[in-house]
Design brief:
By secondary structure, the chain is α+β, with helices and mostly antiparallel strands. It folds into 2 domains: about 280 residues, Zn peptidases (Aminopeptidase, 3-Layer(aba) Sandwich); about 120 residues, Alpha-Beta Plaits. It has an 8-stranded mixed β-sheet, sandwiched between helices. Strands 8, 10, 12, 13 and 14 form a 5-stranded antiparallel β-sheet that branches. A two-stranded antiparallel ribbon has the order 7-15. The longest helix has 21 residues. The radius of gyration is 23 Å and the shape is elongated. The chain starts with a helix and ends with a helix.
Length: about 400
């Protein structure tokens, strides 16, 4: 097909542009809710291609590519925030091509690549504007890591009544040059564990005159592990992870309170609701046995549903990848226990999120996400642009 040839040629023409954009975003990262310069830069690039901008509350925005011809409306989404963490100067093999110049902030998850892919796709589709009808909305979402901007974006997109949403996520556990576009559950939902156990502080020499919340907190954690073994359906995995326990400042002082923080990940919503209730039941019961009380913070709930790809859109994406990319590009049967605010798009619109492999042992890319040594094989970005542009043209 002639249009496939055009996509391949344009993706090759803009490959260096995409790599430069990724490096720019990587060198200049900004954390969730503070992506001011990132947003300004993205808007300038978007407007330079002739697209209109819809401003949103915060740093997120929508770039509008309107053919002026009636047709469907497609959303292409990218997140824009970085993580509040230090970056290592080396990946798994040696020095990185670029490193964050902001202390304590880095793109350790791949959102820099997502923005670059979106801009490259925008370039290609602007050049092929006469080949399709309808509209493409480029949704640049604020604060994905904290879920800070997805609500604003979803409400804005509802006004457009989109027919479909397309997204990418680079993945360090897949080889560079591969893509997974499976239907069904792709990324896990999340439950927050956010509770404080209240006792009665006192002198460490007389524990009998105090009510020690640390002891109760430890027992809550232990009993949650037991409950997970005996009450969670083994066919419906729900992970349990405790990441924080905070209580006391001195070894000879029993504190009044102890905090427990953690998270769970899941694919089945019914089992998630059961797990959420188990957390509350165990915490209250164990606290009472220890003469303590427990209060739950705002994160002690289901924070996000799983990402569930629409069957028809996933098949459209797979078919397009088969037509335009090498036969070994498409891989399947891959799930990821990380959570993503893209789940909100799949809950509200027909949507598909593709995994883009970035692992390359020779180049040293493949370190886990949210890791200082995380790095991207930039040669994989061209593949992602081709897949996104092909999907857009097939959809519209």
């Amino acid at each position: 097909m002639e249009v496939n040839k055009d996509i391949l040629e344009l993706a090759g023409e803009y490959e260096d542009y995409v790599k430069r954009q990724r490096q720019h975003f990587h060198i200049h990262p900004e954390v969730s809710g503070a992506e001011f310069e990132t947003s300004k830069y993205l808007k300038a690039e978007t407007q330079a291609m002739g697209l209109q901008i819809q401003e949103l509350k915060g740093t997120g925005f929508i770039g509008i590519l309107d053919t002026g011809r009636p047709g469907k409306t497609l959303v292409i989404r990218s997140d824009i925030d970085a993580l509040p963490m230090d970056e290592a100067k080396e990946n798994l093999k040696g020095p990185k091509a670029c490193v964050s110049n902001v202390a304590g902030v880095c793109h350790g998850c791949g959102h820099d690549a997502h923005m670059a892919i979106a801009l490259g796709t925008m370039k290609v589709l602007c050049r092929l504007k006469d080949r399709f009808s309808g509209k493409i909305l480029f949704a640049f979402e604020e604060g994905e890591e904290r879920g800070a901007g997805v609500g604003v974006m979803i409400e804005a997109l509802k006004e457009w009544k989109p027919d479909g949403v397309y997204g990418n996520h680079v993945t360090a556990f897949m080889d560079a040059g591969t893509i997974c576009a499976d239907e069904g559950p792709r990324m896990a939902g999340a439950i927050g564990i956010d509770m404080t156990v209240h006792g009665q502080g006192g002198h460490g020499s007389r524990p009998d005159l105090s009510i020690n919340p640390i002891i109760a907190a430890c027992q809550i954690i232990s009993q949650l592990s037991v409950a997970w073994t005996t009450r969670i359906d083994v066919m419906k995995t729900v992970t349990l992870s405790i990441g924080q326990i905070k209580g006391g400042q001195q070894s000879n002082i029993i504190p009044d309170d102890t905090y427990i923080g953690g998270s769970c990940r899941f694919y089945d919503m019914d089992e998630a609701r059961k797990a959420e209730e188990i957390i509350r039941q165990v915490a209250r019961g164990v606290a009472e046995v220890n003469r303590c009380t427990v209060t739950f913070g705002p994160r002690n709930k289901i924070l996000a549903p799983p990402v569930v790809n629409d069957k028809e859109l996933a098949e459209l994406s797979r078919q397009g990848i088969r037509e335009i990319l090498p036969p070994d590009t498409l891989v399947s049967d891959i799930k990821w226990f990380a959570s993503e605010s893209f789940s909100q798009y799949t809950m509200n619109f027909p949507a598909v999120l593709n995994f883009i492999g970035i692992r390359n042992e020779e180049k040293g890319t493949g370190a886990e996400h949210h890791n200082g040594r995380f790095d991207v094989d930039e040669d994989a970005l061209k593949t992602a642009v081709i897949a996104a542009a092909k999907f857009a043209l097939d959809f519209l």
